[in-house]
Amino acid sequence: MPIPTPSKFFLSWFVVALALVSMSACEGDGARVALPGKVGAAGELVVVAPPEVWAGPAGDTIQALMGQPYPVLPQYEPLMDVVHLEPALFDRFWKPHRNILVLEVADRVDTQEPSFTFYRNKYSRGQIYMVAKARTAEALSEVLLSRGGEMVSLLHAEEALRFADIVALSPNEVVAREVLNKWGIQGLWPKDARLAKQTEDFWWVDRQLTRWRGGDNHDIQQGFFIHSEPYVSTDQLSLEHVLDRRDAVTRKHVQGPTSGSYMATERRFFPAYEEMQFDGHFALEVRGLWKMENDFMGGPFYSLTIVDEDEGRLLTMEGYAYAPYFDKRPYIREVEGLVRRSALVGIPQPAP
């Protein structure tokens, strides 16, 4: 069966991020020293800029870029939370922050041509440190606009994968081994995850959390589905087929808490759909909303459908989040990071 080539108009945030890191990122300055761990809240960007620069077009550009809606959530949440810091306050307390952008407007030799530079691990391990500088405020705003898509892609990719890095410190080896033996997927699973359902063509990995808010504990759920079907035609690679397949699988296997309830795709909000390469395979990335038919549950999901030509199958890995009293962005970003850290390594064959 022929394998299509991803459209050049759809470039994954992760592909952009990896390209950026290889082209323009570099290690910290000076001699090699032991760097501290990064600090700061997940999804937060510290912008270091003088008040007049922050109040001008450059500050407006950053706020517009980072204030874009996170894709396909049930309510508005920004791509990143922005904290403005004046240069005089940028001390050793702030320098290890996970994401830093420094804005400079000055008439110097190194600012005659506007520039935007990405660094890794400048003041802390795992840090993204960016510097944009120009001779005028207008030129600085222009370079931010021209590199804004790359910056957003890099920050999103890093934030998603950082959670996977945390899980990797103490993974659930039991779930990982079971998933590998059945599906040929090498992945990271949180220690508190469990296999909730296992059939011949569908697995459900469930993670239940509780968080304190408003004087009470509230339930949060992160779940992962794995399912496949034989790959026989490129017609299976349409968004309509992927969503129809998803709804058929969840109606059969994912029942809700009330009688007659089941998970379905929320079709009133159009999903985001992207063609990409994943682990050397053609893949379809879908971000959408799910709902529980005949009940009141719902939330975002992230789906990756991969053409696995070696096994002759169309393999789907999906993660979803349910957090009714909380922002959804951190939980679906964590789910995405775990799905994207998976790799197809082939289904192990029994020993002869």
Give a structural overview.
Strands 7, 8, 9, 10, 11, 12, 13 and 14 form an eight-stranded antiparallel β-sheet that branches. The protein has a five-stranded mixed β-sheet with strand order 2-1-3-5-4. A two-stranded antiparallel ribbon has the order 6-15. It starts with 12 loop residues before the first helix and ends in an 8-residue tail after the last strand. Strand 11 and strand 12 form a beta hairpin. It folds into two domains: 13-168, Chitobiase, domain 2 (2-Layer Sandwich), CATH 3.30.379; 172-344, Mog1/PsbP, alpha/beta/alpha sandwich (Protein Transport Mog1p, Chain A, 3-Layer(aba) Sandwich), CATH 3.40.1000.10. The protein is elongated. The longest helix has 33 residues, at 137-169. It has helices at 13-24, 51-54, 57-66, 137-169, 173-183, 239-253, 329-340, and strands spanning 44-48, 81-85, 99-105, 115-120, 128-134, 185-186, 193-198, 202-213, 216-230, 262-265, 272-278, 281-293, 298-308, 313-322, 343-344. It has seven helices and 15 strands. Helix content is 28%, strand content 32%. With 352 residues, the chain is an alpha+beta fold.
